[in-house]
# Entry
Amino acid sequence: MAKRIKVTIWNENRHEQTSEKVRSVYPKGIHGALADGLGIKENLEIVTATLDEPEHGLTEERLADTDVLLWWGHTAHGDVSDEVVERVYQRVLHGMGLIVLHSGHFSKIFKKLMGTSCDLKWREIGEKERLWVISPGHPIVEGIGECFELPHEEMYGEHFDIPQPDETVLVSWFAGGEVFRSGCTFHRGQGKIFYFRPGHETYPTYYNEQVLTVIRNAVSWAAPTGREYPKYGNAQPLEQVPVYE
Amino acid sequence: MAKRIKVTIWNENRHEQTSEKVRSVYPKGIHGALADGLGIKENLEIVTATLDEPEHGLTEERLADTDVLLWWGHTAHGDVSDEVVERVYQRVLHGMGLIVLHSGHFSKIFKKLMGTSCDLKWREIGEKERLWVISPGHPIVEGIGECFELPHEEMYGEHFDIPQPDETVLVSWFAGGEVFRSGCTFHRGQGKIFYFRPGHETYPTYYNEQVLTVIRNAVSWAAPTGREYPKYGNAQPLEQVPVYE
Amino acid sequence: MAKRIKVTIWNENRHEQTSEKVRSVYPKGIHGALADGLGIKENLEIVTATLDEPEHGLTEERLADTDVLLWWGHTAHGDVSDEVVERVYQRVLHGMGLIVLHSGHFSKIFKKLMGTSCDLKWREIGEKERLWVISPGHPIVEGIGECFELPHEEMYGEHFDIPQPDETVLVSWFAGGEVFRSGCTFHRGQGKIFYFRPGHETYPTYYNEQVLTVIRNAVSWAAPTGREYPKYGNAQPLEQVPVYE
Amino acid sequence: MAKRIKVTIWNENRHEQTSEKVRSVYPKGIHGALADGLGIKENLEIVTATLDEPEHGLTEERLADTDVLLWWGHTAHGDVSDEVVERVYQRVLHGMGLIVLHSGHFSKIFKKLMGTSCDLKWREIGEKERLWVISPGHPIVEGIGECFELPHEEMYGEHFDIPQPDETVLVSWFAGGEVFRSGCTFHRGQGKIFYFRPGHETYPTYYNEQVLTVIRNAVSWAAPTGREYPKYGNAQPLEQVPVYE
# Structure
């Protein structure tokens, strides 16, 4: 039996309230669809949290009990309180995994961890996306073929203003002529971060088996190692050092 | 004649006001010593700026006229206004080079660009530091031997909480038993960043010819390429895309 | 129960024949000590192979049945047949993990995979080595403190002529004044490679619990994902392309 | 005046002998077209060399007098002598820049430096290629817009079996549905390497001003720093070390 991993799926959950189209695609919300899709893995303990819960559902207790946090947001990045962002940030530095999905590229937490604008090109005309595996030995693409297609998606195009990823796992081709680094890993402190591009709210992307496989693999990859936080600050010498006056 | 580069040397300049020892080592201030040391390169146009000037000497005009900014701060990181930090940040994303020196690792601007705590171990007993070249083909270490020594320096030790550098150019050995990634490059937006460890305020480090050579090389490396800022946002397709309903 | 991993420990096993000192430290050979030390993990199926066996013990069948190969060699790199090196190389590109130990830095297989001389500085006076964790979130250092010491080891010093590692996990401090990138990851094809510095034949390094923990972790990290080899060569278009004359 | 750089353009020059079509596109050979196109930069001293010259035109003297070597080969990789490959390899480790063009991905020298198969997907139907800038601050894309198009090119598609590049500067979009890392930097020893994808022999790609700009920039970037080769081998301690018996 694989290692148990505690997953919290965070979703802004606003489009689901205001758009019938989104509701028809995701009747249980994007968080609900992801919980169902990931939940077939028996080693994952999944809870969900949404923006309009108290403290956005991300209390100290909830985060302390989270190994890997998924983040989907789009229309209400500004409504996420700076206090909660700081809390998530500290948990990432202390080892919690973070998987940022699609329009989460513009979330406060992702921009804070990247140190860049995280800006990009976009277009919403339902064009075809094909994601190519660039790092075939990476555990995040285990079980994925050399590429997979999403018949209709929002386009995100380069330049994507992120630091050079530690590993670029997937690159997308779009019918309209752009490319995009769609699967990117980063390390911040002791935490592992995976950005995964697909998932516009009006398409059934989070029911796609390949998309779900990537996310499940990313959860395993991002799980913390359980080490203590490093000792920082003033340190005694480990060797005898000549006295300097 | 090499390309002209406009350099602004920013120094907190507080220790120089309060400590006779620091003043005796740096009678013209750390910024003054650096200006003298870098100024022998004819292609550099150097100005200095300090914390207690209006807008910390970093007005919109000054930054717009800066190719590469050097940053030395230590005791007063909190006194740097968020507005000026944001201004410097935007300039880096738009292409300005940034060289962060020594205790600048804890400056607001460096932490904002790194997305991590930038914490480390430290010890101030005047021990020996030896910096080893790890990337011998890198232009930042042109003219530097395989290693160089500083007889007395503050120790900084790992773990240094930064993202994995794009290139690790120098690694330090300390007499007391630690190691440290002392010369690290990063890219953020269109800007190039170099972190360079040495330079405690009570030692004559910034008169050392090898230290100055590294900084001069870093200025050349970090100079902007002069390209336009990328076009972000909504984009028309470059290819004909089937209509999706 | 964790995933079963088939491990082959390859050792040159020559010093053990010719040196009483080495034999006294490693009466079962370096491969035997490693097999005992790793074997406490129940999910590892361990076999050993040595230079003087037919085909150096690395037949097609043996390699086909190996998930992760460990490599220790020193005095007889030239005696390893090019045919076996090519066989190991192809297995790495197809996904087999490879852990190269200590003086294996100069083996034919490591140099072939790196594309560099893999040269370094060395000194054998039994000085102290302290290995510092640089990437605290990396699974290879799970269970390891912020640093660990080996009281007596051969020194390896920078410059170490390798490509920039994908991740630098450990950096060593040596009493004699050098530093060294002691734990480095690389990807080649679908295979994962870990270079781990310690392990001179006259010291009981491979009985050290921290050293063994690093190697056990590296075995788990380097295990293949079981994906098919990519399809290379001529490819039909996936989209309709205008005919060009 | 910018630094003088000595450039040797090496071309297999076989298609030009056997194909009227190639000859009509490149009447002076691919090497001749590149020499003309790069030669407008006054700081470049350009010579050419081809496969059928003695020692392939790459004598010890020629290479010793070369700062940056360009390499175009395709149909006759096997005819390049191992001795010349070793000579070029040693020069790269000692600091010579190397720019590998298009089908040079399968040359002996590139495979030796990469340590991988360098295999890829390909298709020759004259489809459109669009190269996107991924690293907008990189000097290799100075003067290049956010993307540029080649109306007809051979397709190269992922997976491209190379080590993760130190920097991925350009990614291609192809009309037939693939993507490719088209501009990649690597460091080997003291040498800098740039792989640049475009340049099939039947298209006028090497007359394209954007392609030439990238190559000219790459020549400047890859020029050596002129440092001495590192000292490897046995080293005396730099610090006093307790005697170990």
In short: The interface with chain A takes residues 1-2, 95, 130, 133, 135-139, 141-144, 146, 166-167, 175, 187, 189-192, 224-227, 230-231, 238-239 of chain C (CB under 8 Å). Chain C has a mean pLDDT of 97. Strands of chain C lie at 5-11, 44-50, 68-72, 97-101, 121-133, 147-157, 167-174, 179-188, 191-196, 233-234. Helices of chain C lie at 15-18, 20-25, 29-38, 60-64, 82-93, 108-114, 209-222.
